[in-house]
Write a structure and sequence with these properties.
Length: 388
């Protein structure tokens, strides 16, 4: 077996979700809401199964969904896209990431990765033959530094994988940081593969700025979105891919030989959802922001030091001053002894260089949050906390 994949350990998400099931713990680890998602979107997909076309749809995606994607991104992010040459539908954002890396990288090419990072990035880069070059984001604001980019980018750099809004840190990057990254991409003629699946999950009046919209980046960016994240339907696995025609040509060839296409009924449902009025999207953000605020307040009452979340489903705590050795030990103790599953942030690094943060998913109903916070209050003395 290929050792790049065969030797990988079980992901931390499988480990913690398995423990949550086995121990009847509250799962605040894996990032999924306990809401069923918008009924009209689900009904549109269900109707398409019963009354629509269920054979192979076009490889690039149904025309109505590609048009909806172009219209949606024009409406919300000011992007002027040709739906027939610059838009593609994939079976989830992870497939889009895999296809983009396969299309862009040749063996020996260097790829810049920002740590902490979604755990799929590194094995996908390595399987495509790429050589990872790591940039460590600087806590607690999780910023990029010019000197770190200067060390990572070079003559062999072919691509950079950039996640914004950022999982697990919950950062929504502002223009100054994006301009810094764009400067290096243009200077070194690098393709930016942008994981923007959390683009609608931004809080406190922030606006998501796609890297593609910056000067010099239109022709060198692969923008990847996720219908599963936009509509809280994480099991649907419908990826939204945007790139300039010359780049999309290569992306489409990779997609053709990975999954080829995506269930047509889900595409119909997503097309319906993307055309919903602005009220849906603003209400969705307000709902998740309220959940963030509620859970953050509860964590602070327990006595935890909370690192502010600007977007996504996630909030992290700093455990550096707790009576515990590291984040893995904390997460294991919390799930086994107190029944709350979390994710240690060190799992998002290639090396265990930062072990002082733990991620919680706050995208849960109030009663789920309350049960979890009750257990965290009981756990507080075990970590040297007295509550506030």
């Amino acid at each position: 077996m290929n050792p790049i994949l065969a030797d990988l350990p079980t992901t931390i998400f499988d480990v913690m979700s398995g423990l949550a099931r086995d121990l009847n713990a509250i799962n605040l680890g894996q990032g999924f809401p306990d809401d069923p998602g918008p009924e009209d979107v689900r009904r549109a997909a269900a109707d398409a199964v019963l009354n629509g076309y269920n054979q192979y749809p076009p490889m690039m995606g149904l025309p109505e969904l590609r048009q909806a994607i172009a219209t949606h991104y024009g409406r919300f992010q000011g992007l002027d896209l040709d739906p027939m040459t610059e838009v593609m539908v994939t079976s989830g954002a992870t497939e889009a990431l895999a296809g983009a890396l396969m299309a862009v990288i040749e063996p020996g090419d260097e790829v810049v990765l920002f740590q902490p990072m979604y755990d799929a990035y590194l094995p996908l880069v390595q399987r495509a033959g790429g050589v990872p070059k790591f940039v460590n984001l600087r806590p607690p604001a999780w910023t990029m530094a010019r000197e770190d980019l200067e060390r990572a980018f070079g003559s062999k750099t072919k691509a950079v994988v950039f996640n914004n809004p950022h999982n697990p840190c919950g950062v929504v990057y502002e223009r100054e940081q994006l301009e810094l990254l764009a400067e290096f991409c243009v200077k070194h003629d690098v393709i930016a593969i942008c994981d923007e699946v959390w683009e609608h999950l931004v809080f406190d009046g922030r606006k998501h700025i796609p890297l593609m919209s910056l000067p010099g980046m239109r022709e060198r960016t692969v923008k990847i979105g996720s219908a599963g994240k936009i509509f809280s339907l994480t099991g649907w696995k419908v990826g939204l891919v945007v790139a300039a025609p010359a780049v999309m040509k290569g992306l489409s060839k990779a997609h053709q030989f990975i999954t080829f296409t995506t269930p047509p009924n889900l595409q119909i449902g997503v097309a319906h959802g993307l055309m919903k009025d602005d009220v849906y999207f603003s209400t969705m953000r307000q709902t998740f922001q309220a959940s963030r605020d509620r859970f953050t307040a509860g964590l602070k009452e327990v006595g935890f030091t909370v690192i502010p979340s600007q977007g996504t489903y996630f909030v992290t705590i700093d455990i550096g001053e707790l009576a515990i050795s590291d984040d893995v030990t904390f997460a294991q103790k919390l799930v086994r002894e107190f029944g709350v599953a979390t994710i240690p942030v060190s799992a998002f690094y290639a090396e265990n260089i930062y072990r002082n943060a733990v991620r919680f998913c706050f995208a849960k109903k109030d009663e789920t949050q309350d049960r979890a916070l009750e257990r965290l209050h009981k756990a507080a003395p075990a970590f040297g906390l007295s509550g506030k």
